[in-house]
Amino acid sequence: MMKNMIFTSDYLFLSPSAAAAIITGQPTNGRTSWKNEFGKTLKDIEQSITEKL
Fold first, then answer.
1. CB neighbour class for 33 (10 Å; exposed up to 12, middle 13-18, buried from 19)
2. Which residue has the higher pLDDT, 5 or 35?
3. pLDDT for position 47
């Protein structure tokens, strides 16, 4: 799965927080840590989608 801190194959995480914790090496809130190229957090993106429903 990983070699020298590089993923050697695709890996599906069960949550954004689990993925963020692997990258940072500590417990992390993935919904506020992950951001797109415009600086919007995953939490913001999810909220804007649910508001449109």
1. middle
2. 35
3. 96
Q: How many CB atoms lie within 10 A of CB 41?
A: 17
> Cα(13)–Cα(7) distance, rounded to whole angstroms?
13
The neighbour count for residue 30, using CB atoms within 10 Å, is 19
Supply the pTM of this predicted model.
0.77
Assess contact for 13 and 21: CB atoms under 8 A.
Answer: no
Query: Would you list the domain boundaries of the chain?
Result: 2-52
Name the burial class of residue 45, with classes exposed (0-12), middle (13-18) and buried (19+) by CB atoms within 10 angstroms of its CB.
middle
* Helix residue ranges, H only, 1-53: 16-24, 30-33, 42-52
CA distance linking residue 44 with residue 28, whole number of Å: 17
